[in-house]
Each structure stands twice: as C-alpha cells, then as structure tokens.
Design a protein that fits this description.
This protein is of the alpha/beta class and 387 residues long. The protein has a domain of 92 residues: Winged helix-like DNA-binding domain superfamily/Winged helix DNA-binding domain (Arc Repressor Mutant, subunit A), CATH 1.10.10. The chain is 36% helix and 18% strand. Strands 3, 4, 5, 6, 9, 10, 11 and 12 form an eight-stranded mixed sheet that branches. Helix 5 links the parallel strand 3 and strand 4. The chain is globular, with a radius of gyration of 24 Å.
Amino acid sequence: MRISDYILRNLRTFCAVVEHGGPSGAQAVLGVSLSAISTHLKDLELSLGFTLCQRGRGGFALTDKGEAVYREAKRMLAGIEQCEANLGTLRKVRTSHLRIGIVDSEADNPDLPVHRAIRRFFGRQHDVRLTLEIGTTQALSKALQTGEIHVAIGPFPNRQPNVQYTPVYTQEHALYCGCLHPLYARAEGAVKLEELSLCPITARPYLQRAELAALHDPNVTASVSNMEAQAILIRSGRFLSFLPLHFANTWVPRGEMRQITGLGLEWLSQFHIALHIQPAPLEIARLFAADLAAERVGLIAVAETRHVAAWLPLPSHAAAPGRKAAVGSRISSGAKHSAPAISGSVTRSTSPKDSAAGSRPSSSPPDRPRTERRNPARVSTFATLVR
C-alpha cells in the first residue's frame, strides 16, 4: 500500500496510543481530543483492512496484527527521523526529535546536571523538538532498544546488547528510618546489624537486591519501583529502606527521617549515559550526551577549585581517584563519589585496600560540601563524547 501523509499521521497517532497505554494516555502527548484520536485509529484500520487494537471499557490491548503494525511503524518513523536529521545536517541546521529518558528523583540532584546539559544543548541554533521521559531502568532499557528514546540516563545493572554505556556519575545511598520508627530515637551508632533483620524493609526489584547485600537475612516485605514510593514507606515508620543521600536530604533536615550509621551499609550506584550502537545514534543524541558529560566534568572542576591547591590532599570524606564503583558497590563508612568504572557486576569493598581507598565519617552531615578529584580515565571517556 502507498504510505501517504494521511497514513503517516495516523501511524504516529497509533504509536503514541500504544506507548501510552491507550487513547487517554496519548491525549496530552498528541495535543488532540479523544475523538480525533479515535478517528485516526478507525481511519488507519479502514486503510489496512483489519483491527489493530481492542479499546473500550475493557481496556486497551493490541491484536497480533496490531503488534506487527506497531513494529513496522516504529521502524519506518525512525527512518524518517534519521532522514530529517541527515537533511538538516546538509543544510547545516540540526533538526529532528530528541527523546531523553532518565530515572526518577534526579531533578534536585546537584551532582547530575541534566538541566544544565539541556540549557547548553538548546543554546545552539537548531530546530529540535524535545521529549523528556521519567522511567525505571527496565523501562528505559526497553525504550532505548525499541527506539522510543535516544538517550537513557541512570543505573543499568542489566546490560543490554547493542548499547554503549558511558559512566557519568556515582550516586551514594544509605539506609534510613522514619521519625515514627522505633530505631529513630536510638543513639548514633547504637543500632546493631542483627536488629535490622527484625525490621521490615523495602527493596527495588530492578537492583536485584544489591542494596541489601550487607544485611543479614533482610526482612523484605515491600517492593517499590521508584524513590518517591520508597520515601513514603520510610516516612510511615513501618519500613526501613535505602535512599540516595541527595533525595533523603529533603526530609532529614526536617527531622522526618534519619540515616542509620555506623554499620557500613552505604553503597554506590553507578550512573551511565546509554546510547544505541546500531543503527548509529542521531547526531543530536550524541551531542546531548556530550553536553551532559561536559557539564559533569565542569562540576568536578569547580569542586576542585574550592581547595587551596590542586596538589593538596582531599578531605577524608572524599573518594580517592581511581577507586572502582560499579553498580551496587559497597563503600566503607560511605565513601563519596568515587571514579566510575564500566561494570555490570555487583562488588563490595571488603579488602583493606578498598577500605582505605576513600571513606567519610558516618556522622558527616547530609549537606556537607560536595568535593571530587578529577579522574583522568573518566575525563578521557567524557572527552571522547565531547569530540
């Protein structure tokens, strides 16, 4: 059949409906009424001669042919986007639609400057549309594979084939309890590791229990898919859970939760910029990834200038350069932001060498100065992106 502009429009509508779980979910993205979406779907089904999906009170579900059409439509639309981008390059004007995905609860993270990278990206002359999606690592990995997003940012414990992972940032996590929890009133360092096995704790399934590795027989009685849900359960006073330090700092100063210290339970989560390898990522995707890398390197450089001289030793709570921090790495008393290494495994710092590589006192306040020493290997990786 001939693919007209009319059918292309209907195919775009159909793909949006599939990706957002039905017409209602796609309405805000498409910016059209539900009746218009319904018309586009009916017209597409008439053009094709078969039903694409079941929709109505019973919910939305694709037919077998609908799934096949979706795959073909995504392949074709991705080709059109690539063509638009290539033509824009010939005109020396960047065009196309950039779709970025990132894990939740990073908007207020001072160490992951996604907002600054977006500002840098749109400081150039181009005609690019942007979509920013928030999702779990599983959802982002799948969307990257299917072409629904071009750049993914987050921790990816399960590596996917045909994806390039570039380390960008190491996030520190610690164990917290809410102000209504029995452990909240205990003195600093008074909680014993054995006591924690008696307390209900939550887990994030996508981490494959990496955060629980140092606990003896953890009593996991709840699971969550994002940080907001984790914080709600902690604040209920019924659950313990791990949170990134920057995110927990929303409630810690207000006395609504506290970190359980002195047990060496802090751990590091390695964040990556993920790009599809084949087909080659759009130029705008590579450019944004380079912008994020450059902004991250800039943050490290600014932190370094706060020292009196670059050759002076870092404070004891700063990480030593070159110390590996793979997804789920355990840190001795909470080492701060060590140099990232590409690794899909879960490792723990148990040797004396690892423990001495860099630690911070567990009593360090949540709003302590953020300081990092630049790691040559990481800057070299970033420089590759920037070029």
